[in-house]
Specification:
mainly alpha
Length: 442
């Protein structure tokens, strides 16, 4: 047990914690201070990996001698503040929820979504960007509780967990939020975006269907993790069906051409396994759609910069191509060498690298061909080529401004020839979903 000033103060605070209903304001304030001090001590112990101090802090917060709602409110206030800091560090709602699930669990994600809903209550609807509203809706971030002091108690009942488990979960979530790295700001923060109804409609039209994309990614994750080829193929087929219903053509036709005048940004998950070739695939898809992708390897996501219609096309096409790649890859089944040793991982790594490389070649050729055909019209050429050039320059400048220290990574070595050949063959068969239109009308 460390003999730190914070721990001694926390111990004394717990011993004198009062503030039950009906007691004086001074006693209630003393109890709030005691709870805050214990929370700080617990977070410090968690950061230092001090298991004994951590356990004792959780125990004392769970058995707080004053009104237990005092601890719940202290934790709720901390969560609200941490979410606000996350926004200032450049994190978007879906980024935050996905990172929480990756680092902790679905239970922690549930706590986070509630904290996001709590924080968003303080902003007027007109001051929240349409893309944020779409993400909040996709997360189901709604205030379902009646009063803040009852929120964690009701959550515990719903999740069927004891007080100690809920206290520990909130503290673990707070620790992850405190360690968030700073990301590039790719849109207006809540409370600062005052937009007209027309601009809101344009932004909403440009945004892909986040609920559908989440379902597709979940199906892909299951397809890649199962050991049964039949199940994997069925899951991939279901993902392809969802993509067909929400085709890229539909997304692009719903985009108005008089949208925002500058580049915007979005973040796209790049999930393990085989995240490196998946990031390459996203990069070539983004470049074909006049966007730029920056991969955050340690966070499992990429920041993509471009104009709204191009961003929508990039996200939808990347997801569609990943569905097709996964479907073809799982149909190939498990791979073994002549001695019966598994070569499935090296096969799939080579497959996806070859697939990304070949898709890049196809998209580049399609983009160049479409631009050339459009430019053959004299009237169109005078407007089209300068606009495309100006957009490319604007996106490049946005990348330079947001990522001044950007470096290019080195591709990993591919060692499985069969996987490489199979990946290129699958890429030749992949549907690009009218990429000509993506390149020329956005």
């Amino acid at each position: 047990m460390p003999d730190s000033r914070r721990w001694r103060e926390a111990t004394r605070s717990w011993a004198r914690g009062t503030g039950r209903p009906g007691e004086s304001d001074d006693q209630a304030a003393t109890a709030r201070d005691a709870a805050e001090t214990l929370v700080s001590a617990a977070l410090e112990a968690l950061t230092l990996d001090d298991a004994s101090t951590w356990s004792l802090c959780v125990e004392r917060l769970s058995g707080f001698p004053a009104d237990p709602r005092t601890v719940d409110l202290a934790l709720v206030r901390r969560l609200r503040h941490s979410v606000r800091i996350a926004w200032e560090r450049g994190w978007l709602p879906t980024d935050l929820a996905r990172h929480t699930a990756r680092e902790l669990s679905g239970r922690h994600r549930s706590l986070l979504v509630d904290a996001i809903a709590d924080e968003m209550r303080s902003y007027g609807a007109a001051t929240v960007d349409a893309r944020w509203r779409a993400q909040l809706e996709a997360l189901g971030a709604e205030v379902w509780w009646n009063a803040d002091e009852e929120r964690l108690r009701t959550w515990r009942t719903r999740e069927a967990v004891p007080v100690s488990a809920s206290v520990a979960a909130v503290l673990e979530l707070l620790r992850v939020l405190a360690a968030l790295p700073r990301l590039a700001l790719i849109g207006p923060l809540p409370g600062t975006a005052v937009r007209s109804e027309a601009s809101v409609r344009r932004a909403s039209a440009a945004a892909p269907d986040q609920k559908m994309l989440s379902k597709v990614r979940a199906l892909l994750a299951k397809a890649e993790s199962t050991e049964f080829p039949e199940e994997a193929e069925a899951l991939s087929a279901r993902a392809q069906e969802l993509m067909t219903k929400h085709s890229i053509d539909h997304a692009l036709l719903s985009v108005s051409k008089d949208g925002p005048t500058g580049p915007n940004g979005c973040r796209i998950p790049v999930d393990a396994p085989y995240e490196s070739p998946k990031a390459v695939l996203l990069t070539v898809v983004a470049e074909a759609n006049r966007c730029r992708a920056v991969w955050h390897r340690e966070l499992g996501l990429s920041t993509v910069l471009g104009f709204p219609a191009d961003l929508a096309a990039t996200e939808m096409l990347f997801t569609s191509l990943l569905v097709q790649a996964t479907s073809a890859m799982v149909r190939a089944g498990s791979q073994q060498d002549t001695l019966g040793r598994s070569r499935t991982r090296s096969f799939r790594h080579a497959f996806l690298n070859a697939y990304a490389a070949r898709i890049g070649e196809r998209l580049h050729a399609a983009s160049a061909r479409a631009t050339q055909e459009a430019a053959q019209d004299t009237a169109t050429r005078q407007d089209l080529l300068p606009v495309l050039s100006a957009r490319d320059q604007a996106v490049d400048q946005a990348v330079n401004d947001l990522f001044p220290a950007l470096t290019r990574g080195r591709a990993r070595r591919v060692s499985n020839y069969e996987g490489w050949v199979a990946g290129r063959a699958a890429a030749d068969l992949a549907a690009l979903h009218s990429n000509d239109r993506i390149s020329t009308t956005s």
